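Thread: Large ribosomal subunit protein uL4, structure

OP (GT): Posting the sequence first so everyone is looking at the same thing. Length is 205 residues per the record. Can we get the structure tokens written out before standup tomorrow? I want them in the notebook alongside the other entries.
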Amino acid sequence: MKLDVIKLDGSKAGDIDLDEALFGLEPRADILHRVVRWQRNNAQAGTHKVLTKSEVSYSTKKIYRQKGTGGARHGSRKSPTFRHGGVYKGPTPRSHGHELTKKFRALGLRHALSAKAKAGELVVIESAESEGKTSALAKQVKNLGWKRALIIDGAAVNEGFARAARNIEGLDILPSMGANVYDILKRDTLVLTKAAVEALEARLK
């Protein structure tokens, strides 16, 4: 499929042939859902923790005698049945991550790229370079109509461009190796440089 290539000032800079195997698939929500779920689960800290009966700070004295009170037979105030007692079967630190094969992760990325292309939310620019002036880049982004955009560059992001984009709200920049399904779907517009297209085609073929 062919797509116009533009410059950051909005002028046309030719066109590019995009690989149908990456940008021409019929997007499947189930594949995208599984990959996003894998990403978010792996990012979860899993540091939740409650105090159990053996960990709460309380007296270990038997609260009243075993027989003759007419009440239940209790041995400790740390029991989960009392206020300030331990929590029974509460959450403990653990990993929420699960496995997903490399092939499936790559398939998910191809479907994410195809989803953006099909929705008309894919833009290819010649290069992402800047002198490092935030005001100049912000004006260009506004003129192009990018409100929530993810820009993916080649192997490395231009230092001046990264510095200029740092304080622009709704603009994210990643190198091609950082391209992932969650970040692509989260933003309204996906912007690829020509170097990013080449790198992604080499990575996903």
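GT: Both are above now. Quick notes for whoever picks this up: The first strand starts at residue 2 and ends at 6. The chain is about 35% helix and 15% strand.
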